[in-house]
Amino acid sequence: MCVPSPARRDLVVLNFFSRKPPDEPTIDSSVRAALDDWFSDAAVPGTERVEAEPVLAALPEVEWRINARAKRLRLTIKSGRVWVTIPPRTSQATVKKFLKDTESWLNSQWQKQQALKLKHPDLAGSDPARTSLPQSQQTLILPALTQTWYLDVSDRYSRLKAHGNILHVPESKAVASLKNWVKQQAEGYLPDRLAELADQYGFHYSGCTVRHARGRWGSCSRQGKINLNAALILLAPELLDYVLLHELCHTRQFNHSPLFWAEMLAVCPSYISNRRALKHIELPLWWHASA
User: Fold this and answer.
1) Which of 5, 88, 161, 262 has its CA 20 to 30 A from that of 255?
2) What residue segments make up the domains of the chain, in order of their start?
3) Calpha distance 141→139 (Å, rounded)
4) 189, 144 Cβ separation under 8 angstroms
5) Residue among 281, 230, 231 at smallest CA distance from 116
6) 100-116 pLDDT tens trace
7) Pairing mode, if any, of strands 225-229 and 218-220?
């Protein structure tokens, strides 16, 4: 074997310790980085790359607000803040009990709002409902009426017009126009459906009002007057009927005691699954927007 000259020996030693010998094929830097990552993970058995779960904002402290016109305790979640509205002369013990009783609901609603912001990152840092507007080619479905409408939003229209299965919506007042139109459809259906169910199951109530509501699908007063959320017309018929029957049962049991749920079971055997499904309903973002 030939012995290389001193200069040649220096070259051999250099090449031996070099990461890339002169005759090594060139590897693209991105490929090399991927290989390095793969071998790095493979060096520890059982390791794998896992995407980090998005972190939801923590529930803020509940603010206490006394309102002279308030008649009952009410929780509100808005713009990243939470507060409880308190009628005058309400004791601290009553407020604390109310907050404890509604803790599960509050956490659930907060998580839903935060998840919605993650789903629509372009709306982060603002109220999603206030920044999302109706768009052309969106659909508006009224399941109970077996109707599907297509939106045509344009500044060419001065007022909302229905033509065939198309709703021509004025862009400058799209939210107000659509909400009013949906309410009109609800007013034409919900009171009649409520009367049908009342006759079918022998319920009696003193009146029915359809309105826009933010936090409730419906309510029933001690006088038997039932208020219904116009958004019910956007729900599947079985969920809509569940809410109506729920309020009708309150004309007999003004509470959520076992007696109330026994009434519900008698008129709506699937009330448990309907109740669960109702918690996952997502209305169009524009429904909650300010008109």
Assistant:
1) 88
2) 63-131, 173-288
3) 6
4) yes
5) 281
6) 988 888 888 788 777 76
7) antiparallel
Helices (H), the chain: 6-17, 29-42, 92-101, 103-119, 128-131, 174-201, 237-249, 258-267, 271-278
CATH of domain 173-288: 3.30.2010.10
One-letter amino acid of 117: K
221 class by beta-carbon count within 10 Å (0-12 exposed, 13-18 middle, 19+ buried): middle
Encoded tokens for 147:
């109707």
Query: Is 213 in contact with 183 (CB distance < 8 Å)?
Result: no
Q: What are the residues whose beta carbons fall under 8 Å from the beta carbon of 211, sequence distance 6 or more?
A: 183, 227, 228, 229, 230
Question: Which among 220, 206, 200, 172 is positioned nearest to 266, based on CA atoms?
Answer: 200
Max CA distance (Å), the chain: 112
- Each residue's pLDDT, cut to its tens digit, for the chain (291 residues) gives 444 444 444 444 334 334 444 444 444 555 454 444 444 444 444 444 444 444 556 888 889 988 888 888 888 877 678 888 999 999 999 999 999 988 888 888 788 777 766 665 544 444 443 446 788 878 899 999 999 999 999 989 999 999 989 999 999 899 999 999 999 999 999 999 999 999 999 999 999 999 998 778 999 999 999 999 999 999 999 999 999 999 999 999 999 999 999 999 999 999 999 999 998 888 888 887 766
